[in-house]
Task: structure prediction
Amino acid sequence: MTFGQIALWGLVVGFVMSMVIITGFAYTTLLERKVLARMQARVGPNRAGYIPLPGRGGQEKKLLAGFLQPAADAVKLFFKEDPTPGKADKVVYNIAPMLAVIPAILILAVIPWAGKIPGLVPEQYSYFAIVPGLNVAVLFVLAVTSISVYGVVLAGWASNSKYAVLGGIRASAQMISYELAMSLSVLVPVMIANSMDLGVIVEAQRGGWIVFLQPVAAVIFCIAALAELQRAPFDLLEAEQELSAGFNVEYAGMRFGMFFMAEYMKMVSLSAIAATLFFGGYRGPFVDQVPVLGFVYLFVKIFIGLFLMIWIRATFPRLRYDQLMLFGWKRLLPISVINFMIVAVFIVLAQEGVFAPITRLFGF
Amino acid sequence: MSEAILEAPGSGAPETLANPVEQAISALKERFPEAVVDDPRDGYSGLVVPADKLTEVALALRDDLGFDYLSSVTGVDLIEDGKLEAVYHTYSIDKGGSAVVLHVQVDRDNPVIPSLVPVWPGADFQEREAWDLLGIQFDGHPDLRRILTWDGFHGHPLRKDWKEPFYEEDTKPFGSRWPAGGVLRAEELNPYGQNVQYPAGWVPTGDEYDVETEMYAITGADLAYSIDASQQMKTDKITVNLGPQHPSTHGVFRMVVQLDGETVVDLKPVMGYLHRNHEKIGERNTFLGNIPYTDRLDYLSPISNNLGYVLAVEKLLGSVVPERAEWIRILTVELTRIANHLWAIGFLLNDLGALQTPMLYFYIERELILDFFEALTGARMMNNYMRFGGVAYDLPDEIRGQATMEFLNELVHERLPRAIEQGDNLMTHNEIVRARSIGVGVLTRKESIAYSMAGPMLRASGVNYDVRKAEPYSYYEQLDFDIPVYYNGDVYDRYKVRMDELQQSLRIVRQVLPHLQATEGAPIIDGKPSYAIRTPQPGEAYGRVENPKGELGFYVTAKRRSSSPERYHVRAPSFINLTSLGKMCQGHKVADIVVILGSIDIVLGEVDR
Result:
């Protein structure tokens, strides 16, 4: 294919995938509300939309009750009055939600969704992604996730509210603390696969997922990702009990909704990244024979990731600001540095052939 | 639960030969001859102390005579004598028993009484309340501002000659609201439209916030910035209003917090947004008609409130409560305690950020208790159940299709223990719960007594004091239960005290159930149920109960042949427990404020009254 064709292909795929994820985000909110409700002995949203089925005794059974709730939420958010506070910095106040959403969509560009599907993937690439074959994909992910904090910090600052400022300050401090641990744990799969291309990292897990080789890095990544996502128990910046809503306290309507859009889309994409880096990505049984199965496997892994995040939110109390900092700097960072160094040393030793006698002993 | 340190009630207390109250009174009379005398009025039991001797008497009571706990401070307007009276109830933590009551009478036109805040910091809010509602000036009080009414309020509403604007004008029927006539505006239809008389010099248009400069001036009295020692950098302190509209203040409660970064430098509670002058309403009601109003104080434990009020008036009436009624009272009150503590613990964990899950699990069982109350009293929350000399209704035959005793047995033997154990397993040893609550909001034993803390707050600080043991009412003397006491005085210990109290309340209810079965069909009220009660004996009475939130006291005075109380005062545990909030929060983080407030377990209906 020519360059132009590939660009056009990328545009089409990007548009389609973004639409899929944006719709999927809406259903992530429904998933969260339903799962949270079930965990809290409640029913959850069950009014908006259902499929009537004839049930016993002339009563109709309601199948999938509540499946239109996201649409109802969206309609509500779009039609709500959306005032700007009088003393807010208007330009920044209006830009901030966009700055939060854009990085969340950008991360989607590099996620490998499936293997090489004939006819769908240009022949020079080996997997299906919006931007396949990006050789700095991991760096791209790290860069974009760090940018997303600007939306939060600027929203907090521009709102001209004390709660919002406190939330914004917490966001920036938290992001800096956990970014380091996250980067260092991300480097472990990069070193093992010897590439920053996410597709290559997935293919490197053909023999076994990296989580089995490096559970420490996987755990650190998951914790740091929770902190990056500002999800419980690290949701200090929108701590409802303390700051009422933190950085988004002055927002209303769809601009308020955009922060949630960003949060839920990042939940989806970071689950996908975690699956890609540590849990075999789109790989699974028979994926080489039927590459389309890759979508299914990745979807299942994303779903498990989302479910875990919701589960954690339903069960854990929140950390305090200073405890969060302490945990990030004094626990996670040293562990990930040491882990990183151990991995590096082992890889060099393996390349030097130090382990050759041992592997030979076991008949590899 | 195995770590619980349960103290056997009164095991270490030596047998005192004479009543400690009589001993203290005679000692005081000896020490201050002529100054301190018995109250000569009929039905009054305390001492009359001249204002200038009050501080000395208080110090003697606190330091030498062991009456170290100031339970209640209030005032009475004796308009016929031209006097204002302040009433103090002091108790002995070690000896238990009833109160040494001090009456201080001062001239109504110049009501100055020395403040007892230097002696008992717990008098702080109560003296402010007495200033606000009665206009008694407490000399030497560090911060004598209005507390329940707002800054622009005119007059002191509990004074007998205070007239409610519009409704209590001297000439009736009401005069025209627009003297010139012919103008009617929508806002004029608001009956409270002219309720406010603004202080001189205050212009109600423009910058309304100016009224609170006094409060902000106090919180910002220190430097408005702090200096970072390493870089000589000035960093601003900011003042944040947490509340009155805030998800975690448990109602319309406001805290003016001064922050240095995330650290709390100073905190002032601001209350009164729910103020309805419960006491004034109570003084207009008949004795009987006031019972439903007490439901609304601590609306999470209405039956306990009923009991406190009913006990106080029964002292005046001299009623005898039949046996079955007493057992039903204990049953309902202890179930109320369980319901309240389930709520309190759930909310505390919610304040810790455990998004409602523990709370909702506790509510499943709380609902069952409310079902019982609904079947028993007809209401799930505002029960209005106690009557003078008994209770309103006997136990119902069935609850939700189940025989009552069967329902109760299942509740206290199976469902509640299971729920409590489940919560205990999930939360007590949770790493984050422990990290967030251990060492947070510490009150030492000495401080908690000085600040007049009550209930679980007091017992978490190592004070073995429970009204049910110290001055037993109803049949608590016959029941076998322990008082859980913990010694660190932090949020975690308060949580554990409540957890243990749940178990103890269950223990009490289990002992009560056989008695209920044995007394089936017995009378539940002294005499006939009546819509009007005979007028009580003149005098004063202080009825106190161990409410789930702490010691709830009702101070009631009655005149001869009067159908409504002359003075009706509520010693609200939530309100007085808030006195130490500022102290507990200092030096902690913003997130801790919410947790500490949650550990106090306030209900705004009771705080603001």
The interface with chain A takes residues 238, 240, 246-248, 262, 349-357, 360-361, 364, 430, 432-433, 435-436, 589-594 of chain B (CB under 8 Å). Chain B has 19 helices and 21 strands. The domain at 278-608 of chain B is CATH 1.10.645.10 (Cytochrome-c3 Hydrogenase; chain B).
